[in-house]
Every structure is written in C-alpha cells, then in structure tokens.
Protein 1
Amino acid sequence: MGSENRFYSEAEFKLEPKWLVDPKLLFVGPKIGEGAHAKVYEGKYKNQNVAIKIVNKGDTSEEVAKREARFAREVAMLSKVQHKNMVKFIGACKEPVMVIVTELLLGGTLRKFLLNMRPRCLDMRVAIGFALDIARAIECLHSHGIIHRDLKPENLLLTADHKTVKLADFGLAREESLTEMMTAETGTYRWMAPELYSTVTLRHGEKKHYNNKVDAYSFAIVLWELIHNKLPFEGMSNLQAAYAAAFKVIPFS
C-alpha cells in the first residue's frame, strides 16, 4: 500500500491478510441504514454481532472506479487508525461484493437520537460529553493527518446505553497533504465548511486547497445541534443552506 504516511493510494491498495473477511462466514440480517452508495445491515461474523456495509459498485465504469477508490480509502483508514470514539473495524472483502465489517452499535445514529427527543434538548452535561467524544475522534484523525470531511449526526453512532458517541463512515476521508488534488465539493451541505462549496465559491472543476479546519466548522454545527436540538438552516433547502453558509449567513435563532 505504500509508505505509512499515505493511506489512500488506490492503485497500490491491498487488503492486509489479517483484515480479510471470509464472505462465507458472514450472515446478513435486517437493514439498519442506507446511503447514496451503500447499505448497512445488522449481521454476524464468526458468531460476533456486527454491522455489515455493502457498497454498490455502480452501473458505469466511471462509477465503479469511484466507488472502488472510496472503498479503498475507507478500509485503509479504518485499518490504520483506531480510537475508542471511532467505530471499531473488523475487516473487509472486495469479492464477490465490496463489504466493510465493523462493530455493531445498537444505539443508532445521533440524528435519530436527537429527533426522538424533540422538542426537548439534551441535558447540558450529556451534550458536553457527546461533544468531547466527537472532538477526541476528530483530534485522533487530525493527528494522523486525516480530514473526515463529512462530520454530521448521521455519521455519529451511539452505544446501546446512549452514553458514548463514535465516529463512523470514512468514505470521504482524505489525507490533508492530498487535498490540493481534490475538487472542493464534498460532504453534506448543512454541515459543510464554506471553502468546500464548489458550486458557490469555485468555477466548475476548479480545485482548491483546504485543511482540517473544515472538520472544525462541521464540529461547531454539530455542537450547536447538541445544545439546541434543531436542524441547522431549518426551513431552507439544501441549496439555500449551501449559499447561506458560503456567504456566512447566521442560520441559528
């Protein structure tokens, strides 16, 4: 896979034997989540309860290449960086389908947890505890030169007792030293730092360097949610939220 400092070179990517999952030993149960490019199921691996993420390969050669690259980055990052506030990586396989296996966190997403509480807010001590969990996970990534780029409540999972938050979904993570090669648009509008909006700040296809401060911006939005239990830029469409954030409109009341 190259040097220890380069986690995301897709051309060189190889799964280390210790992380290879035998698909014959996977039991896929009910679906517990779904994104644009993957579905997540509850399941078992070697009699251990796990979460099984199955990545859709795509319909075109371009889509297949992009999703294989994203899969490679996510597996490489998960296998290299571990932390108590990051979802625990168990293993992965590329054939017959791209699969990532992690610990199963039964508390659900932070988004669902907050929605179920509305209109009530978290106790301030709980909110601070969650914020510290998230900050520790991001600090760990940044100390390894990695930017998450998609920090939001949907990518933050709770333990069954709802006392600990763990960061998940590293498909958009990048080494900070490589961001000058990326187009700016990525992540999710409401939590995305202004410098990442290619549709607002850049001409189509133009590239712009940014750093780990984009995660700090997203963290601030999540922190506000933890305190107020409201959706940022509530009442706005995604595009309106994008323009508001890019031009530094204050979205909160």
Note: The chain has a mean pLDDT of 83.
Protein 2
Amino acid sequence: MIHGLVLGKFYPPHKGHLHLIKEAKKQCDVLTVLICSLQREIIPGELRFEWMKALIPDPNIKLVWVKEENPQYPEDHPNFWEIWKQTIVSHSDQPIDIVFTSELYGDPLASVLGCKHIPIDIGRLEFPISATEIRESPLQNWVYIPEPIRFYFVKRIVLTGSESVGKTTLAKKLADHFETNWIPEFAREYLEQKPTPMDETDFLPIAKGHLLSEIEAAKTSNGILFLDTDLLTTKVYLERYYRSEIPWLTERALGLQYDASLFLDIDIPWEKDKLRDLGEEREEMKTRFLRAMEEAKRDFYMIKGDFLEREKLAIEYVNQIKEWPIFPISFTKAQIDLRKIQ
C-alpha cells in the first residue's frame, strides 16, 4: 500500500491546493494531508482545518491538524529539517513513500524523510496562485478561492444613515455596477407584511431576519455584499421609539464588524411614505446615527450630493475597498459566533 504525504498551511486553501491533493491521491492508496498552523496567523488553524474537512471528504485522505510552532525556514533553526521530520513522523500512521508538493522544498524534505518526491504543477502553470496573493488581494483572485468558503472573504459594505437618504436606491445601483448581491432593509419587508402596527416586540425578529438575510446573501455574492442598513440601525430606532434595548441585538449591533461603511448624509429631500415619520428630526437622527457609529467603533466614508454624485462617489470608494487585503476580524471566533442565529 502506497502512502503519500501533502503538507502545507492552506492559509487559506485555494484551488491550487485542491488540485495538488487530487493529483497526489491518484498516485497513492492512502494520502495524509497535514494542515500546519501558527497561533499568530490571522486565519486560525482550527478554521482552516474545518474548511479542509468540508472541501476534502474522501475517506482515503487523512486530514491532520498540526499545531506545533515549528520554524518556518531552514535559516530559522539549525535543526530545521530534523524538527520537521519528527513532526511529520509523529502525525503519520505509517511510513511515507511519496511526498507531493508544488514547492521547491520538496526535494530536501523527501531526502530527510527517505522517500520519493513527486512535484505537481511546481511552476504554477495550471493554477497561477498562492495563498499570500489571496490574503493580500482576495477579490482580484476570487476565481481561485473554493466556492464553499468564499463567503468568509466577501467584503461586506454597509450603507447607513437616517431614513430617506437614498440607501436602498444606492445599494441597488452599486450591486448592479459591481455585479453582485445586495440585501434590502428587512424591517421594511417585515412591517409591510404585518397586519398590525409596529410595536416593541417586532425588533428582535427584524434583527434576526436581517442578519439571516446577510448570511445567506454572502454565500452567493461576487466578492462584495452591499447591505441596506444593518443591526446598528435597528438598535438606533429601538432606542428612538421605545427607549429600550434588547441584549441580543445590542451585542450584535455593537460587536459585528464590516469591511466598510458608507454613511449617507441628509442633503437630499426627505420623501414621506407610510413607514417614515421622522422628517422633522433629520438633524437629530443623523446625530443619533453618528453617535452609534462611534459607539460601535466603525469608520465610514461620508456620501453627499445628489443621487448621481452619490453614486459616483460611492463607486470610487468601493473600487478602493476592492483592493484591500482580507479583513482579519472576519475569521475570528467572536465574529463567526455573532453571525449565528440563536
């Protein structure tokens, strides 16, 4: 029985990694894949391990999470190769016959392990990508991120501000321009279908419904998701109408972080409809929203001008945001837990 080995950080896993593992498995009976991580890395090893289990369900591929804080380069430690040999042997059930890599370290590693090295796409011709490139520019390398984990890398952009400032109109325009998803204000949909007037008990289902719509929309978004308001807005209106709070809502309104926020100013005419009644409080509500943004420790881009000016300015800002590296907070257990509907 031929036993093969693939090891790497998978930081994050990409389609080149999956190609390597697929081709390696064709050439051995059993394949061990070591997922190596360090505590200081911004995508936790435990999360990467969970991703790999979801991406590679083959029972003949054994996935092992390696937690040792080993040196990363030969110059880091005089016993570099021996340290890694001991780590690999201790995490393998049987002797290794072949090590498969797409890296230059394959030959010296195979020599240390006393096995054969088979390089696969070492020139990165089939999959010209690295995990570093994805971390630094996820949207520019979107095609190489496996579909089941893409929602972690979606840049979530919130449009915020008081009522009748054009959030819905702009969210639609931006989604069309960037060919991706947007989610409408859940409260409007919820209240338009409600046969009785709004009351305090509506705020928790509105908050949960809005968060659920964000989670679902992120799964199919093309790198960016535009949110017409978020839970911070729900919190502001709960305080304005009922002077109360809901702990579940407060925790998420203040704790959830987004890649960026566009704050829409009140310099366009207020338009009345059946769900708007604060036209006389525009300045006060703008102040409430600015305070809420400060309380949640969120930076934002201010959007001013008429509708065309707002659209042009917002597109310029989003084009800047598209160039940003991954948002480290998105991968923390705290943020993942806050996005669970309980």
Note: The beta strands are 3-8, 30-36, 61-66, 98-101, 116-119, 155-160, 181-183, 224-228, 260-264, 301-303.
